[in-house]
Amino acid sequence: EEKWDFVLVSDIHETGSEKEKKRKKFLDELSKKGFIIKKIEDTKLFYGVRAPQQVFWKYQCLLGKPDKKLQSENSPQDIPVTTRIRIVHFILQNTVTPDLEKLNDLMKKKVFKAAFPLHEKEAVREFLKEKWARWRGLFNEQPIEKIRCYFGEKVALYFAWLGWYTYLLGFAALAGVLTFVAGITLFSSSQVSREICEANTTVMCPLCDKKCPYWVLSDTCTYAKVTHMIDNEATVLFAIFMALWATVFLELWKRQRATVVTNWDLYGWDEEEEELAMELINNLQHEPQKYQHSYFRSTIVLLLVLLMITVLIGIAHALVIYRVIARALFAQSSLGLLRDQADTVAVMTGAVLHYLTIVIMTKINRRVALFLCNLEKPRTFSQRENNFTMKIFTFQFFTNFSSLIYIAFFLGRINGRPGHYVRIAGRWRLEECHPSGCITDLFIQMAIIMLLKQTISNVMEYLIPWISHKLRKKHKRPQKRSIILGEEEEAEDPCKRQWLSNYELNEVNVFSLFNEFLEMMIQYSFTTIFVAAFPLAPLLAFLNNLFEIHLDAIKMVRLHRRMVPRRANDIGIWLQVLEAIGILAVIGNGLVIAITSDFIPMQVYKYMYSPCVGDNHTDMDCSTGYINHSLSVFRIRDFEPDVGKPEMLPNFNRDEITECRYRDYRHADDYTYTMQFWHIFAARLAFLIIFEHVALCVKLIAAWYIPDVPQKVKNELLWRKHTDLRRELSTMEYSTEV
């Protein structure tokens, strides 16, 4: 069977057309370099490309046989298929025609439709197809070594990282479930929830203007129970655990990575050296591109990045405005259920709208990030990939988390007070927190976004390539082909069926693996940064990843064309992204507990204002009276005159109600902040500083305690250096004696 390194696909162009001339010039340049080219004609023109053997000999001579561990024992002179494909791909991409056009330029001009390496019926692929890229192998161990042999080190490291991440997510998911179960046990036993459920005489101020009536605090009994199921002491311990987990995960991954790449003999691999070697193999007269840095260009890019971030924050503000207006409209609805649950419905529809903006802005963010990378003019593909990664992750982070940041840290804190509300356009009041806190809103928002992202995205990620592949296979091929340019072709070519079946698969590009990494980084952010408000996030991520691993495997092996293998000895700049997320997780969870949660106000009440202070009430819950103490009094006569009087409840007489309660710490006479407000403010600040410093110290200690490189790997590297030096010295002494 003939082996071909790459296949180029082109439309059948008219004889003498501009596209036909450009195609011939490019193929002629390949022929000058010694490439063997085979043409097969069907509905498209297919050109099989095979590089001459001296190209690979040069590679081995320049880099000292870097693939000796992948070479066959029977034919050690053979070069691995993954390396052949990588070298040929590099030469194809950097071959220049007399018109100074490269393959990418020709593909943009539709001279060539596609260029791809072939999925061949190798033993490795058949093994991956039967044992790995199947749903029934969901809980089987991943064959990382065989993935490397077929797809290259970059893809193998992605699956090694994803498998390790999923494995350790199991421990985080278990801790999250235990935290959630501990909260469920408090569903009905919490003293704070019990006080809210029994407060049937506490009249609360209206939630909107005019049509919203006064309401009784006990009406929100269920909501209060759910809130305290999430917001309890176990959540604080879980947040600290997740900060430590993120550090341990990274440190253990560094050790795992060191072990894997040492087994591959790539620990000291130099990417720049390999790129220079391939440049020289392609063109002996090549001059290396020098490192350059332009402060002017960097300043322009920085300003444009800040402008894009401002736009993304503006979109988050638009979502806030939607929630405010929707809540006001739902509260005035004629439907009783919608009116009663106006706040929850506004939160849920806002979360769905947020998900839609994420889907739309992801496409826009990609285009903007590519444009900014082109402005920077990076020296190499790796540098371009790193620059693009940082920009797209920054944009995606603000796209995904701006709305969550508002709910966590601003909702209910900038809305003013009765009689002096902060309004949008002087009309719509900003949202308020429930008397039991805002953490349930954050819980709902995160739950909806994570469920939508992980279900809809995964379904579309599998269905679109699957349907596309099936539709392409259904295209009828002509039984008889016309002969172009007088060139004859055998009726049954053994390569034709293989090339056509590969062309019918879905296209892959340089972003195919990048997209998978980016998806996992956003998930990792959801799993760690606001996990204090959503303890089930690690569980959802764990279940998702069990399917994600095999979904990606099925796509790569069965539905997509073969990826161009890329060599790597780590996951690149994604490791820095993970470390940044780990620091943000400490800050984010500290802020959630200090600001969003009611944990700090409740502790201040217990130790400074509760009935337990001063007297030894061993039989009393120290949080007794907390709700009444956390609600301020507002005189109804102080409502704004131009807003109109709110409606009354059926069981209440307007003349009987002179006051209503609202969530804040203000005096009843002049509405200034009470001393308790400042005590809570100081306690929040102190907790935030202590929590973050303790968590960061624990992270540093864990990073120091767990070495990045196992001693076994260090000893193996030491032994290799010693063996190589001794061999060289022995060779030198032997030469001297002779």
From TrEMBL:
Q: Which residues form the Anoctamin dimerisation domain?
A: 72-144
A GO molecular-function descriptor = protein dimerization activity
Q: Which gene codes for it? A: Ano9
Q: Which UniProt keywords apply?
A: Cell membrane, Glycoprotein, Membrane, Transmembrane, Transmembrane helix
Residues annotated as signal peptide = none
Q: What is this protein called?
A: Anoctamin
Q: Where in the cell is it found?
A: Cell membrane; Membrane
According to the record, the segments passing through the membrane are 155-184, 234-253, 300-325, 345-362, 392-414, 524-543, 573-600, 685-706
**Membrane topology term:** Multi-pass membrane protein
Q: What family is this?
A: Belongs to the anoctamin family.
Q: Which GO terms describe its cellular component?
A: plasma membrane
Q: InterPro entries from the xrefs? A: Anoct_dimer, Anoctamin, Anoctamin_TM
PANTHER family xrefs: ANOCTAMIN, ANOCTAMIN-9
Every Anoctamin transmembrane domain range: 147-717
Q: Tell me, in one coarse class, where this protein mainly resides.
A: membrane
Q: Which Pfam families match?
A: Anoct_dimer (PF16178), Anoctamin (PF04547)
